[in-house]
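FAQ

Q: What does a record look like?
A: Structure on top, sequence underneath. For example:
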């Protein structure tokens, strides 16, 4: 309000200066000219719909865009002088922003990465590239126990809750999903009208707080769940066990963001900080988890049902696989969240030191399912810093069937990583429940950007795969991705990691897996 008031004052001062210049002295034009320019610029910033920063910070916001324009020159200045001893990495955010805006993301003069730096990964092109398919493939989600399977896009909106995000951000994300034909994960904050209104396909996520289907004492309410899962737009249901940024602890929504609407959607008291428990009440063993997944599928009318986790103990996940085998049922999908992921606030130690990174998490889950003979009935999603086509191709090659993006989608709706998500003062209206700030996010413009980003990222992934000689993700193989070990050595993923054969764990587990497989107990989450 103060920022808008300053623009109004500038316009008033401009008019007063013009009157003074006409009636008192021509010298007043020296003051009138800049005041008129500032006032008109501020008015234009408030009325335009393209830039959220300018709508919330008229005039002042232009300083940020000026710095963006000179950023490449500043980077080159430091590169030439080698101030930090290494070249700058290409800014992934700029690729995402350009694709969301529909402009060309190409850049001259080759890579800025040190290709001989240990850890550098590269995909292997083919001497016989293939034409890019006109229509990207989709992934059928739904095992033998699922009566209403869903065809998932290769890239979708990852879990971000209403409450953490503003109403306009949710509307833009779901609107983009509806326009582009991909899915939007609701996050654990409940199912709101803003998820349903645009008409996009939904993956309804249920967390430890059971928001949107909880009893007064915080337990799971099957009647509420059945009613909301019956919405036509709800295509899949996901049970969140843990998330990448903070595995093993619950989420927190500050009381300042819990307005009457958020409280109603989540089923919690207004104005009070909402803390999700670190554990579920509805199960305490791997077997009970699998039974609850089956119960959710039944309550939802046969829709695909699965769970999301940031992997911890391999032995615990093998215990879940054993429970699937003994119960004769399995989730339709499992979403692997990498420890490097996360869009909201999290304790620094958890964000930096707890949980398995996405590469190792994917490889473990994929191989465990293959070795247990379950991989053909359980699809695997990947979530954790997937922002570009090459990111997606790498995850598909490492064992995923599809990917989810959160951070990149936040960039598409205007996030500038101000890191004020938990303060309710987001400068672009993405992560705030303050209606004056949220109005800066124009739903129509940002809906189009979400659609563009997903389409351009899929297009990039398909072009990369075609250059590798494949036309479908199922044709990707571990030897097609290499990693630099040292300046003189590189190895393929087929060499770096162990890849199990179907049913190998059940028939004759390899020595490297045998101890964990034999110790895994479907009736106990042992470490």
């Amino acid at each position: 309000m103060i920022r808008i008031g300053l623009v109004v004052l500038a316009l008033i001062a401009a008019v007063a200066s013009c009157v003074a210049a006409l009636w008192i002295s021509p010298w007043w034009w020296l003051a009138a000219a800049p005041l008129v320019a500032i006032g008109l610029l501020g008015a234009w910033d408030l009325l335009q719909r393209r830039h959220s920063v300018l709508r919330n910070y008229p005039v002042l916001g232009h300083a940020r865009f000026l710095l963006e324009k000179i950023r490449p020159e500043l980077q080159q200045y430091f590169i030439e002088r080698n101030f930090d001893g290494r070249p700058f990495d290409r800014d992934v955010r700029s690729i995402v922003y350009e694709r969301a805006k529909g402009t060309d993301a190409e850049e001259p003069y080759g890579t800025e990465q040190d290709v001989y730096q240990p850890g550098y990964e590269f995909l292997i092109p083919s001497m016989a590239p293939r034409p890019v398919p006109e229509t990207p493939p989709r992934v059928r989600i739904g095992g033998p126990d699922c009566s209403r399977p869903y065809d998932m896009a290769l890239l979708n909106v990852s879990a971000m809750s209403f409450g953490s995000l503003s109403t306009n951000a949710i509307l833009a994300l779901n609107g983009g999903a509806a326009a582009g034909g991909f899915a939007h994960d609701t996050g654990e904050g409940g199912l709101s009208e803003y998820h349903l209104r645009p008409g996009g396909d939904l993956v309804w996520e249920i967390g430890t707080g059971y928001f949107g289907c909880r009893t007064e004492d915080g337990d799971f309410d099957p009647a509420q769940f059945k009613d909301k899962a019956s919405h036509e737009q709800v295509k899949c249901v996901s049970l969140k066990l843990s998330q990448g940024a903070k595995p093993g602890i619950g989420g927190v929504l500050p009381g300042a963001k819990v307005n009457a609407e958020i409280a109603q959607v989540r089923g919690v008291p207004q104005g009070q900080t909402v803390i999700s428990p670190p554990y579920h009440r509805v199960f305490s063993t791997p077997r009970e988890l699998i039974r609850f997944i089956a119960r959710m599928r039944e309550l939802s009318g046969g829709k695909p049902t699965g769970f999301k986790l940031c992997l911890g103990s391999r032995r615990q996940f093998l215990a879940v696989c054993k429970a699937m085998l003994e119960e004769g049922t399995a989730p339709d999908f499992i979403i692997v969240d990498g420890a490097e992921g996360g869009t909201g606030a999290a304790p620094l130690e958890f964000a930096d030191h707890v949980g398995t990174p996405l590469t190792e998490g994917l490889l473990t889950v994929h191989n465990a399912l293959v070795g247990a003979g379950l991989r053909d009935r359980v699809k695997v999603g990947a979530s954790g810093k997937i922002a570009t086509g090459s990111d997606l191709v790498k995850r598909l090659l490492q064992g995923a069937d599809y990917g989810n993006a959160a951070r990149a989608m936040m960039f598409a709706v205007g996030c500038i990583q101000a890191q004020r998500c938990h303060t309710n003062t987001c400068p672009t209206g993405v992560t705030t429940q303050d209606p004056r700030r949220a109005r800066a996010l124009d739903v129509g413009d940002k809906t189009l950007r979400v659609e563009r980003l997903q389409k351009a990222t899929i297009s990039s992934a398909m072009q990369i795969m075609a250059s590798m000689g494949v036309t479908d993700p199922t044709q990707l193989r571990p030897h097609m991705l290499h990693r630099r070990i040292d300046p003189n050595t590189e190895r393929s993923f087929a060499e770096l990691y162990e890849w199990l054969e179907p049913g190998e764990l059940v028939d004759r587990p390899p020595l490297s897996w045998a101890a964990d497989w034999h110790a895994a107990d479907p009736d106990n989450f042992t470490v």
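Q: Is there anything notable about this one?
A: Confidence is low (pLDDT under 50) at residues 73-89.
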